[in-house]
Automatic annotation (TrEMBL):
Belongs to the bacterial solute-binding protein 2 family. Residues 65-320 form the Periplasmic binding protein domain. This is Substrate-binding domain-containing protein. Transmembrane segments: none annotated. It comes from the Bacteria. It is found in: Cell envelope. Keywords: Signal. Residues 1-32 form the signal peptide. Residues 28-62 are annotated as: Disordered. Pfam families: Peripla_BP_4.
Length: 357
């Protein structure tokens, strides 16, 4: 949907005044201290600021942030909600209004409309359907309320001030690269893939990244099935996969929650000739990796901190602060989080922040 002239003007003004805001606000809200007026030159800005003083964690003007996400019917989504609420609770100057999680796009639209009517200062939104929530997000932006889009992108850039994403393509690349490192000298290795919901762009991106990485070492996916991000779906399609493939060298499962079912099917079939790489980074999977007593050898992180990052960015925007760790000082339009591989060698670095399936 094209943006209205009002919104275009607002975005233009925002960009045009960014430098002025940076100069005006850096002294009190960046990660550096303001110049010392007692230095020679009568407080000239040419003196180097002292690092480490002040910062965006310092209390500021009270702001109200609305948060809406899908129903927490999945371990990762539950962790998303929990982390967002916990992050808001860190700040005495933030009031968080949380809508009940829903998988009904129409209900979520009404929740956002309520936030607009209440004139909240910012909205953090993980849409149940990015395209369906685009129009109401634009409506919020046109009302002067910055929208922070989390995980599932809107269909218009005018619908959000900031978009915080995991890296689905990067997850596939990380998983494929790890398997290449383990099997790259075996051109006849049998690689299997257990995807999520094939109709979702995120699943398609994960598969593309996986195929691209495998191609780099001469491997390809020999057997592929798609589940539905549920335990039951994971178990069902894995049973089919194992029957169809009498020999497998490696499996990448896109999602650790559905991986509970995947592992159940593997145990039932009494198969252990392969190693497995998971996806998302659940605590249950990390414990299996740490134990060394499972086919589960690694998992690829898909951060459950995305909404928490959204809360932090919403507060910075609503209070007119700047990001002192960036030279420009302005909040980026898009933030994409990294997808590292967790193995037995580094699991202790990640397990403390992992979510429970």
């Amino acid at each position: 949907m094209p943006a209205s002239p009002t919104l275009r003007r607002r975005l233009t003004l925002t960009l045009g005044t960014a430098a002025a805001l940076t100069l005006a606000l850096t002294g009190c809200t960046s990660n550096e201290a303001p110049p010392d007026p007692t230095t020679a030159g009568g407080g000239s800005t040419s003196s180097a600021p002292a690092p480490g003083a002040g910062g965006n964690d310092e209390p500021g003007e009270k702001v109200v942030i609305g948060f809406s996400g899908p129903a927490a019917d999945h371990g990762w989504l539950g962790a998303i909600n929990k982390a967002a609420i916990a992050e808001a609770g860190r700040y005495s100057d933030v009031e968080l209004k949380v809508s009940e999680g829903t998988n009904d796009a129409n209900l979520q639209i009404s929740q956002v409309e309520t936030f607009i009517n209440e004139k909240v200062d910012a909205i953090v939104l993980l849409p149940t359907d990015g395209a369906a929530l685009t129009d109401v997000a634009i409506k919020a932006m046109e009302a002067g309320i910055p929208v922070i889009n989390v995980d599932r992108e809107f269909s218009s850039t005018f619908a959000a001030r900031v978009t915080v994403l995991g890296d689905n393509y990067g997850m596939g690349v990380s998983a494929g690269t790890y398997i290449c490192e383990r099997l790259g000298d075996q051109p006849d290795a049998v690689v299997a893939e257990i995807a999520g919901i094939d109709s979702l762009p995120l699943t398609q991106d994960r598969t593309k990244g996986f195929n691209d990485a495998l191609a780099g070492c001469g491997l390809k996916v020999s057997n592929r099935v798609a589940a539905d991000f549920t335990i039951q779906g994971g178990e069902s399609v894995t049973a089919q996969l194992l029957q169809a493939a009498p020999k497998i060298d490696a499996i990448w499962n896109h999602d650790d929650d559905q991986g509970i079912g995947v592992l159940a099917a593997i145990d039932t079939a009494k198969r252990d000739e392969f190693f497995m790489v998971g996806g998302a980074g659940s605590k249950d999977v990390m414990e299996l990796i740490k134990s060394g007593d499972s086919v589960m050898e690694a998992t690829v992180i898909y951060p459950s901190t995305q909404a928490a990052d959204g809360i932090r960015l919403a507060r910075i925007l609503a209070q007119g602060r700047v990001m002192g760790d960036l030279v420009s000082g302005t909040v980026p339009r898009k933030v994409q989080l990294y997808a590292p591989v967790v193995t037995k060698d580094n699991v202790d670095d990640f397990i403390g922040a992992a979510f429970t399936s």
